[in-house]
Design brief:
The structure holds 2 protein chains of 2 kinds.
Chain A (H helix, E strand, L loop, with lengths): L8 E7 L9 E2 L4 H6 L11 E2 L5 E2 L7 H5 L3 E8 L7 H10 L10 H9 L9 E4 L15 E3 L14 H14 L8 H20 L16 H14 L6 E6 L10 H25 L6 E7 L18 E6 L6 E3 L19 E2 H12 L5 H4 L12
Parallel strand pairs in A: 1-8, 1-9, 5-11, 5-12, 6-7, 6-8
Antiparallel strand pairs in A: 2-4, 3-4, 5-10, 9-10
Chain B lengths: L2 H14 L5 H10 L1 H9 L10 H6 L2 H4 L3 H14 L3 H13 L11 H13 L4 H8 L3 H6 L13 H8 L6 E2 L2 E2 L3 H10 L3 E3 L15 E3 L9 E3 L2 E3 L3 H9 L2 H15 L17 H13 L4 H10 L1 H4 L9 H12 L11 H8 L22 H15 L5 H11 L4 E2 L1 H11 L7 H11 L5 E2 L5 H13 L8
Antiparallel strand pairs in B: 1-2, 3-4, 5-6, 7-8
Classes of the chains: A alpha/beta, B mainly alpha.
Chain lengths: ~375, ~475
């Protein structure tokens, strides 16, 4: 497959820890919101209304222009049957599309395999951050995982140029695939070879980029900048991924301040990223997905909220048909699921839409089934 | 002394500690395997590290109130403590009973917790759990100070069962129900922390455990088939006697000390890779009255352990600490003493800041193309430093082979010195080709030391060296 700058690209921003949807897209006119949130509630007069029932968290102001321009879609009530309230497991389910058993392969790992079946580009998928999220993992699928774009490379400790190139030559021969050494050994070989190739190409990205957009200082903001750099360098990368660190959205306590900072950071980085792509005339083929593993308990616990179900996901892009998708789950006691918002939109339908309507892939084998698609991508 | 004994000792020290120099391996092998196991199991008989000199230079090491000071202090201990198993086990418990500095009242609270792991980590498991459930860092990390009898916060109650003791399930069955989680959380209402009143300019008080009986639910609870007006310690008692707890701890010990297992979330449905070994450990758990020391004695002396050489992918901490122990120059105050903890973090293991309460994924999941680059770059950089005392001593050992040695001798002695690594034929051919590019090697030449350094750099860059 040849890549051109016009091939569709997906950027994923993962919000780890379970984002409190009720305080993100707020049902500000619902008396049950007030009743359930004696302590952890955004006052009505601070909400940024988007219609008569729902409004943004005040710290989402940077996203309002994207919403007004129709470049932002909100997928409401997104989740899966029999929600699991463990972070680890729920994130695993979102990554692997397997709610009932432990699966190895991530949905994007599979997508990368389908986008680049002959492994022509080791940078078809690039992750920014330490460690590869399971969403991107699939045996035999190379994904570069970049902690720091500026210093990425192999055997950089050997300073003398000639010695280093000799050592790199041996390294590449050592890590060439061999037979019969077992799956872990093969896995190491693959990673070694991918690292070598990827490093050479990625090293070119920062030099090709300059921008008037200044991103925030948080590591996630900087990774969003790196994503823009790699995208703008035209390396044929189709899927780029980064994660808000350390379960930061796990706001069991002192949620009001913590969540305000988190939402500010995310809103600003998304808005900066979009402006950066616009500046480089590189936004048209980019779709940005922002998701979290679950929403939080409807009733607050005094200073925070516990693990819940039914969350919301966000999509941004020139080709996104802005608006609300799915239904906002009811807050009425008899409609809740063990005190949590009831999902009405399977996340695998959201994935299927991206895979089929954005990438033109067959979603069924990737998401393990047939799920109702949504209509957020302009044809 | 038989090389086989030394290599077996190298295996033991890699697992029960953070590796050892060849000199230490010889010394320990002379004492004997079982005797060394006993020494490791009784760290209290070894002199603890004295910190007065370090504290004179490292000011932050007095109140230990920053995460960096704690990380540096811990890496320093891992490298230098003669109580190697104490530190290794501290790392083991830290990976299970996760507390992260990103959610901590004060960084020195984690030190308090780690010191408890050092003190109790080899002892009775129930006692360890009782201590953990009164540990201020843990109570705060999992919000139990916000769990009230009228507004129960389930965070601690759930993770105690799911991640710290029983696990969600085994043999395809669930180990507990959602009602058990609720009862467990209810039993721990009123378990909170006392106020740490600031007393500047003298610093701050440590947080302490506080039991608030007025905020404790006195309702009858039904928990794992037993009912009564349970309090937190009753719940821990019931947990400790569950077969699922024996299974969970045995699998964790096996995964950490013996061979890589599938990840924890798979344990409900995936059988242990060596059921016989797990059953032996479970049996020891009950027969010894939940003693971790007894379980580890059985483990280290077993054939399944001795035969499991290089059956695990090294964790980032193992990569960095074993490298520093080989170099032998991380022994006192020096600049850049914070670097080892940073290197460990770049390789994917931010000590004192696990990614989630579930801890780190282990085994081959430590490796991706990014972290592999970090490993190779770090280890080859450190091992190529021919001026460090540990590398010097390896160079001298190789030189002692004679004034002219073959490429095979160079490679084999280097492999022995690093702890008996064996290479696949393909890798071996490549390294020999490189070592022998100018024929036999003169150990008296000016380039000799660098040649050894290069050989070491290439060895630590191999796939084989990523295993322990």
């Amino acid at each position: 497959m040849t890549s051109t700058n016009q091939d569709p690209v997906l950027v994923v921003l993962q919000l780890s820890g379970g984002n409190d949807i009720l305080n993100t897209v707020i049902p500000y006119n619902d008396p049950l919101y007030v009743d359930n949130r004696p302590n952890v509630r955004i006052p009505t007069d601070q909400v940024i209304p988007i219609n008569d029932n729902l409004g943004f968290n005040p710290n989402m102001a940077p996203l309002k222009p994207l919403w007004d321009d129709g470049h932002m879609a909100i997928v409401q009530g997104v989740g899966y049957p029999n929600p699991n309230r463990s972070h680890f497991r729920s994130m695993d389910i979102w990554h692997t599309c397997e709610p009932d058993k432990i699966a190895e392969e991530g949905w994007l790992g599979r997508a990368i395999r389908d986008l680049d079946p002959n492994k022509e580009n080791v940078l078809t998928g690039v992750n920014f951050g330490r460690g590869l999220p399971r969403a991107l993992a699939a045996p035999g699928v190379p994904v570069a995982s970049v902690g720091s774009l500026e210093t990425y490379g192999v055997l950089t400790s050997i300073e003398q140029e000639e010695k280093r190139s000799e050592a790199l030559n041996i390294f590449s021969r050592m890590y060439s695939p061999t037979m019969g050494q077992g799956p872990v050994f093969d896995y190491l070989s693959q990673n070694g070879m991918d690292a070598l190739t990827g490093a050479d190409i990625l090293a070119t990205a920062p030099g090709k980029y300059s921008s008037s957009v200044e991103y925030g200082a948080s590591s996630t903001s900087q990774y969003m900048r790196n994503i823009a750099q790699v995208h703008c360098a035209g390396l044929g990368t189709r899927i780029l991924y980064t994660t808000a660190p350390y379960n930061s959205f796990d706001t069991h306590a002192t949620q009001m301040t913590a969540h305000a900072n988190l939402i500010t950071d995310v809103s600003t980085m998304v808005s900066d990223f979009y402006a950066d792509l616009k500046e480089h005339n590189a936004s048209e083929n980019v779709l940005l997905l922002v998701f979290t593993e679950f929403g939080r308990r409807v009733h607050d616990n005094g200073s925070g909220t516990d693990h819940g179900s039914g969350g919301a996901a966000f999509l941004f892009g020139d080709k996104v048909k802005g608006g609300l998708y799915g239904e906002y789950p009811s807050l009425e006691a008899d409609k809740l699921l063990d005190g949590d918002l009831h999902f009405n939109n399977d996340f695998r339908g959201l994935y299927a839409t991206i895979l089929e309507d954005w990438f033109g892939l067959d979603a069924q084998p990737i998401v393990n089934g047939n799920f109702e698609k949504m209509d957020f991508i302009a044809k | 002394m038989a090389e086989a004994d030394i290599q077996l000792m190298a295996h033991l020290m890699r697992r029960a500690g953070f590796g050892a120099t060849y000199e230490e391996l010889e010394r320990r092998a002379a004492i004997g395997y079982e005797e060394t196991v006993e020494q490791l199991l009784h760290p209290e008989n070894e002199q603890d590290l004295t910190m007065d000199v370090m504290q004179r230079y490292m000011h932050g090491w007095r109140d230990m109130n920053s995460v960096m000071a704690n990380q540096a202090y811990w890496t320093y201990r891992m490298v230098n403590s003669s109580r190697q198993l104490e530190e290794k086990l501290c790392l083991f418990w830290h990976g299970i009973f996760c507390v992260g500095d990103s959610k901590c009242m004060a960084a020195n609270q984690i030190l308090v917790q780690l010191n408890n792991f050092r003190k109790d980590g080899l002892g009775n498991f129930e006692n360890l759990l009782q201590g953990l459930s009164k540990d201020p860092a843990m109570l705060y990390y999992l919000d139990n100070q916000l769990s009230h009898k009228e507004a129960v916060n389930e965070n601690w109650g759930r993770e105690l069962l799911e991640l710290f003791s029983m696990g969600v399930g085994m043999d395809g069955q669930a180990n507990y129900s959602e009602d058990d989680v609720k009862a467990c959380a209810e039993a721990f209402t009123g378990w909170t922390i006392g106020n740490a009143i600031p007393r500047y300019p003298y610093g701050r008080y440590d947080n302490s455990f506080l039991y608030n009986q007025y905020d404790h639910s006195e309702e009858d609870k039904s928990f794992l088939g037993e009912s009564g007006n349970f309090n937190g310690d009753d719940v821990v008692k019931i947990i400790a006697k569950q077969p699922s707890t024996a299974r969970f701890i045995s699998r964790h010990l096996y995964n950490f000390f013996v061979a890589d297992e599938p990840q924890v979330p798979a344990w409900q449905t995936t059988a242990p890779r060596d059921l016989e070994a797990i059953e032996l450990l479970e049996k020891t758990y009950f027969e010894s009255g939940y003693e971790i020391r007894s379980m580890l004695r059985v483990l280290f002396n077993s054939d399944f352990f001795k035969n499991a050489r290089f059956a695990k992918v090294k964790s980032p901490t193992e990569v960095v600490i074993s490298t520093l122990r080989l170099r032998g120059d991380f022994t006192g105050p020096k600049p850049r003493i914070y670097d080892p903890a940073l290197e460990i973090r770049y390789m994917g293991q931010d000590l004192l800041n696990p990614p989630t309460v579930e801890g780190w994924h282990t085994g081959k999941e430590w490796i991706d193309s990014g972290t592999l680059v970090e490993r190779v770059n770090y280890t080859s950089g450190e091992m190529g430093d021919i001026n460090s005392p540990g590398i010097r001593s390896i160079i001298n050992r190789v030189a002692a082979q004679g004034s002219s040695i073959s490429p095979e001798q160079l490679l084999d002695v280097c492999l022995e010195m690093l702890g008996g690594y064996s290479l696949t034929d393909d890798t071996r051919t490549l390294l020999l080709e490189n070592a022998g590019k100018n024929g036999d090697i003169s150990t008296e030449s000016d380039e000799f030391a660098e040649q050894v350094g290069e050989t070491l750099q290439l060895i630590v860059s191999t796939q084989e060296y990523q295993f322990t």
